[in-house]
TrEMBL record, chain A:
Protein's recorded name: Branched-chain amino acid ABC transporter permease
Family per record: Belongs to the binding-protein-dependent transport system permease family. LivHM subfamily.
Species annotation: Xanthobacter aminoxidans
Topological type in the membrane: Multi-pass membrane protein
Record has Transmembrane helix as a keyword: yes
Intracellular or extracellular location(s): Cell membrane
Length: 290, 314
């Protein structure tokens, strides 16, 4: 039982990170129909930025704040300089642009930073907290707490503010949103900025556990994309559930089956789910119009 | 002039001419090897051109099939004592069968859901190649024995240049013939609308599966050639970033264009080689160029240029 609990804790920790990345995918996808393959690189910018700013002598909160702001700037630039000029291009072309952006960000990062693995000290020490026969690291609580806070904040923002409702309206129908006077360009920029901020924050809190390097983004992009698809693309609740599920599946697979094949188990589960629910767990049924 | 631009034989003749010219202007065996790599990756990407360009189905795990073909040529002779040439054929057949088994369920998925399913397949193949150390040599990969073609041992850059060029020409001819066949028209029809295609009497799932299997065979043959030419293969061949690269070749050159696919492959194979002079700027420049090309030529190089030329012509 204690082993089960232990695995559940680490699964939820990893899952919380995936959930934040999947939410980033969802936000951008809903606002613009773009699948942003540079999503995981925001996580890297958050982590690496904090590491190097702290090495330069800044305190953790200041370093983290600057790193997140930097990621947001990168997100806004990505939208303004790469996605906006290609407006109207086909989805595959847009995906290629974000893949190019991801390669570019990695390339610039290895020049600005370096090619080594880096870590951050845990925010509140390394003493494990005993819970029901298992233990949980304080940093795991930081990760889960941050994820929870961000999800709640995003929910409140979308449901209870005028700007948030404009985002939802744009996601539902871009043309209609434009007709009722919503500044769609602003909403798109907002979506890119918000996803960058969420990814970067996930990177800051996750780095003490996962370590970080200039090319770690690809892994996060892959898992975040998988989580968003498992939940059903475009559904924020699905993104969170999908992220947690993938984190749990791969941790339990590593604990009980084989640590080498944990990713294979996670992807097999996704294949099985998609075979029975071809639009993900929470995806809406749509009928193709002819 | 317009007739020439549209003719089915034009890309083939242009390709053959370029193939004949390159050895005359390529000064060293290094250049010939890079050119041979271009032909081999073009062959792998051509399969994706059929799948993505004609049938409109995405695959983000295609390097998995390339890996299967490559490791067939590595494992067959080393572990089972089979002839390497036979192993290319066996690898292609195996890849086709796996594509058929995997494709049957997952090709029912659409759009991004198909993308994540194929991506998952590619990740699993790469993981197996990476982890089954006794069979595949693990992360370090394994060496591949030389190929003997009817008693002629294929070695040296120039020989590999011609073997790979020949393979690509045959592959391009088959792809162009598929495009002009009833199957090619059926694929383009279901690309536009599956419902309308089904309404016109096309067996949509069978045609999609056929395109998937053909694409897998192309990738496996290319993988086999790649392994045999390099004499070494690592699980990197089946990695996700390799799958993305194959897709990028197809899209940068121009979705659905055979000559464009070769151009796209040339772009992504030659560019990193020329950028090694800039060392640490290599990745940044590569990413930037992909973005610039896709923003300014969203249709891909060949279709955009063709549209431009046709506009200027009377």
């Amino acid at each position: 039982m204690s082993e089960f609990l232990q695995l559940a804790f680490s699964g939820l920790t990893v899952g919380a990170i995936y959930a934040l990345i999947a939410l980033g995918f969802t936000l951008i996808y809903n606002a613009s129909d773009v699948i942003n393959f540079a999503q995981g690189d925001f996580v890297m910018i958050g982590g690496m930025g904090t590491v190097f700013l702290m090495a330069a002598g800044l305190a953790l909160p200041v370093a983290a704040l600057i790193a997140v702001v930097a990621a947001v700037l990168v997100g806004l630039l990505l939208h303004r300089l790469a996605i906006e000029p290609a407006r109207g291009a086909s989805p595959v072309t847009l995906i290629m642009i974000t893949i190019g952006a991801s390669i570019f960000i990695k390339g610039v990062s290895q020049i600005i930073f370096d090619k080594q693995f880096h870590s951050l000290p845990a925010f509140s020490g390394d003493t494990p907290i005993p819970v029901g026969g298992a233990t949980i690291l304080p940093q795991s609580l930081w990760v889960m707490g941050t994820a929870l806070a961000l999800v709640v904040a995003l929910y409140l923002f979308l449901e209870h503010t005028l700007v948030g409702k404009a985002v939802l309206a744009t996601a539902a129908n871009r043309l209609a949103a434009k007709l009722v006077g919503i500044n769609v360009a602003l909403v798109l920029a907002l979506a890119f900025g918000l996803s960058a901020a969420m990814g970067a924050l996930a990177g800051v809190v996750a780095t003490p556990i996962t370590l970080t390097r200039y090319d770690i983004g690809t892994l996060f992009t892959l898992k975040g994309f998988a989580a968003a698809m498992l939940g059903g693309m475009g559904n924020p609740l699905g993104a969170v559930v999908g992220g947690l599920l993938i984190g749990l599946i791969e941790t339990f697979a590593a604990g009980y089956l084989s640590s080498t094949y944990k990713d294979a188990v996670a992807f097999l589960m996704i294949l099985v789910v998609l075979l029975f629910m071809p639009r993900g767990l929470f995806g809406s049924r749509t009928v193709e119009r002819v | 002039m317009k007739a020439i631009l549209r003719s089915r034989l034009t890309p083939l003749i242009a390709l053959a001419l370029i193939m004949a010219l390159v050895p005359m202007i390529a000064p060293t065996s290094f250049h010939l090897r890079v050119a041979a790599l271009v032909w081999i990756f073009s062959l792998a990407a051509l399969g994706l051109t059929i799948l993505m360009g004609y049938a409109g189905q995405v695959s983000l795990g295609h390097a998995g099939f390339l890996g299967i073909g490559a490791y067939a040529v590595a494992i067959g002779p080393a572990r089972l004592g089979l002839d390497p040439l036979l192993c290319i054929v066996l690898g292609a057949a195996l890849s086709g069968v796996i594509a058929w088994l995997v494709g049957r369920p997952i090709l029912k998925l659409k759009g991004y859901y198909l993308a994540i399913a194929t991506l998952g397949f590619g990740v699993i193949v790469a993981l197996i190649l990476h982890s089954e150390t006794e069979l595949t040599g693990g992360p370090d990969g394994m060496s591949v024995s030389r190929i003997t073609l009817f008693g002629w041992r294929v070695t040296g850059a120039l020989n590999w240049y011609w073997v790979s060029a020949g393979a690509l020409l045959i592959g391009a001819l088959i792809a162009l013939n598929i495009a002009a066949s009833p199957t090619g028209r059926a694929l383009r029809a279901l690309h536009d609308s599956e419902v309308a295609a089904a309404g016109a009497g096309i067996d949509v799932s069978a045609k999609k599966l056929a395109a998937f299997v053909v694409a897998a065979v192309y990738a496996a043959v290319a993988g086999g050639l790649l392994a045999a030419m390099n004499g070494l293969i690592t699980p990197e061949a089946a990695s996700f970033s390799h799958s993305v690269e194959l897709v990028a070749m197809v899209i940068i050159g121009g979705l659905g264009s055979v000559f464009g696919t070769v151009l796209g492959a040339a772009f992504l194979v030659v560019l990193p080689q020329t950028l090694t002079a800039f060392q640490e700027y290599e990745q940044a420049v590569l990413g930037l160029l992909i973005m610039v090309f896709m923003i300014f030529l969203p249709q891909g190089i060949v279709p955009s240029l063709r549209a431009l030329i046709e506009e200027r012509l009377p």
